[in-house]
Amino acid sequence: MKNIIVVIPSRYASKRLPGKPLRLIKNKPLIYWTWKNIVKVINKNQVYVATDSEKIVVECKKVGIQTLKTSSKCKTGTDRVAETAHLFKKKILVSIQGDEPFLKKKYIKQFLNFAEKNKNFVTNAYTEIKIESQYKSLNIPKVVLSKNNFLMYMSRSPIPGSKKNIFNKSFKQVCMYGFPQIILKKFFGISKNKSKIEKIEDIEILRFIENNVPVKMIRLGDNILSVDTIQDLKKANQLMF
Fold it and tell me: Which band of pLDDT confidence, cut at 50, 70 and 90, is reported for residue 241?
């Protein structure tokens, strides 16, 4: 995996949980736990946190995390990753969200291998939803796939839906992305605008779908918990041993 660079996009001003990357789980910032799991799989010299926040830079340095300073004008995490791309020519860029402290080593490894194998595609991951409350939660992007495991659509609404309004077998996104640099830089960066449906759903990968860019998906096991709210943070402190 020498050709991979992992970028963890991170912003301080999260709407649902302000200061989220630096919220403490067992006396360490949230972003530290995500980084720690990633560097169990890939050399820490290939992993960076990209942020516009000096607070995040300072706290990352305290725990030995490399950082890249990015613009405050980035509209999404993927725009932030695109801004760093010029530093890593001929590398495969993988973005892993900083609010995934419970990603297992084997799933990170699976995804990095998948992204490397499919380096000419935008790649993303998903897992099964087993709890009805997750299916109905607007905080969780749900995934609809083609027979060949390409992304058809993603929504915060419960999809696939039913006239009977019942809990259907469904899948949710796991926030790991792989990007061919030429495609990433074409659609993302500080000068690029959100696409129409992306803006409505607030799901950045839809920018590719709206521009007819195929997104190849891999199914992974459940990631236990993503931290989006104060309730999630409380659960994370209970789960982290």
Answer: low
Taking a C-beta distance cutoff of 8 angstroms, is the pair 101, 22 a contact?
no
222: buried, middle or exposed (CB in 10 Å: 19+, 13-18, 0-12)? middle
Three-state helix/strand/coil letters over 140-180:
CCEEEECCCCEEEEEECCCCCCCCCCCCCCEEEEEEEEEEC
Domains and CATH numbers, the chain: 4-239 (3.90.550.10)
Q: How confident is the model at residue 100 (pLDDT cuts 50, 70, 90)?
A: confident
Rg for the chain, CA atoms, rounded: 17
* Contacts for 123 with CB less than 8 Å, ≥ 6 apart: 111, 114, 115, 177, 178, 215, 216, 217, 218
Q: What is the pLDDT of residues 105-119, one digit of tens each?
A: 999 999 999 999 999
> pTM for the whole thing?
0.92
Contacts of 27 (CB under 8 A, 6+ apart): none
| The CA-based dihedral angle spanning residues 32, 36, 39, 41, taken in that order and rounded to the nearest 10 degrees | -140
Q: Which residues of 13-28 are buried (b: 16+ CB within 10 A; e: fewer)?
A: ebeebeebbbbebeeb
The total number of residues written for the chain in this structure: 241
CB 239 within 8 A of CB 224: yes
Which tokens go with 227? 């931290």
